[in-house]
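Let's study my pick:
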Amino acid sequence: MMEMLRRVPCFTNAELPSTKMSDFFPLTKRILVNMGNDLPVFVLARLPFGTLESAIPVFSNCRIARFRRLRKRKLLAEEAKALKLAEGEKEAIRAETDKLRKERRTTKAKFKKSKGENAQLKKEMKKLLNGFAAQKKELETEYQKQVDEMYLFGYCCCMKKNGITQDIPSFPSNDEGETPNGSS
């Protein structure tokens, strides 16, 4: 039996045990992978159930999923930023609306006050116009009295001057319908 074992080379040429990790795990390799625009990445691949060609798509899918998660986080951050900006604008619009409402209330109050003052001034103007109309009427009647008195005074003076003693003129005519100047 010893002779038979000596004929097999693995029993006769004994080697020292290896200290390399790759000797213990022969299916583990360090692979350089280029993922598009990124710098090449060194990957330590362990392929227990397949070949390198079947492991790379899985790694690629994991990397794509990581990029998608990163993109999703960026989009969420941008949306949060946009939401904060929109809320700030909303608060500014609310403040502006409140300011305009206050201005509207004060304007309405001023309008009502001026409307009341306007009505009061119209009443006063109406009273003054009525007073002026009454005063004008009085002045016109007084003026007419003065005119009548002056006419009467002038008529009386004229009568005295011309020696007329009666107010009714007498016409020296036999015809009662005729006047001295010949008009009938």
Summary: The chain has a mean pLDDT of 76. The CA atoms of residues 158 and 164 lie 8 Å apart.
